[in-house]
């Protein structure tokens, strides 16, 4: 016997249910779902049916489930395992026996309307999720992206964010109230979407119309830089080697301290689009530089914090597992102490020493903090001074 039967249904019950699903509905006592689901399946339920409303937060609903010794039939929209309640039930009741009867999910229905070959579609959800879920697919240049929205991350706000980041190379297909009598679908440009309001629930598909060319190693001359300060940027060869020292493939959160033009943040995010990046800089003019460079290279999702680093409450910011020190204002020892205190265990700090004095200061601070120097490299670009790149790891 199953503990849960989870049935995915369309928004129009004219679509016939299978005999097996009808039998499940007729032969059980406890049912659960939203009020809309109850109305849709009411005619299929037995006279003695007991209905449990699914309400947010779900823990209250799950506590009710735990008091029931009989199987529960959960009604959901579309495919319950497609970012749906089926996954949540599996996590919350790991030992339960579950039988799932899926229907088409919303993005499938939208693709069907436009006869899209959606087998290679990349799926991301913004339903209560961070923007990085979409940003990373845009940076990777995915040609077809299916996006699940919510009441804040709507088609209009998504289009506006994309255009602000320089992604004008997609068109959008939007579907609202899919599968129901009020279904509405349209193909529309991003500029047009910004002024549109679509009924909820809705979802969308982004279709790439032209590719954005990317390069590994952006020439420093291509960045917007501080006026009159052409040397105030981490040079390309130094930047690429520093990023390799950061070991970003398995990293989650990078702090770029003293970002100046944002070159390291942008190159790191382009290389590792999944990465959360927080960039710190005290220069007020760098705030606009970061925006300009993000837009130029189509790299959204870098959070800039603009203040003297030593005045910032670091406890209010999600802690990092990777740190690049691009500037320290002559207070390297104090900065290292602050950074090491919030760095995750086995986290990495990368530092570029431009002089013998800063080299010795970094080595001294790392030793005092019991950090291990795990890699270093001396490198010189063109006629600039040699730089020592250090990698230091925080051990448990």
Automatic annotation (TrEMBL):
A molecular function (GO) term: protein methyltransferase activity
Pathway: Cofactor biosynthesis; adenosylcobalamin biosynthesis
Keywords tagged on the record: Cobalamin biosynthesis, Methyltransferase, S-adenosyl-L-methionine, Transferase
Biological processes, Gene Ontology terms: cobalamin biosynthetic process; methylation
Entry annotated with the keyword Methyltransferase: yes
Record PANTHER family: COBALT-PRECORRIN-6B C(15)-METHYLTRANSFERASE (DECARBOXYLATING), COBALT-PRECORRIN-7 C(5)-METHYLTRANSFERASE
NCBIfam families: CbiE (TIGR02467), CbiT (TIGR02469)
Record-given protein name: Precorrin-6y C5,15-methyltransferase (Decarboxylating) subunit CbiE
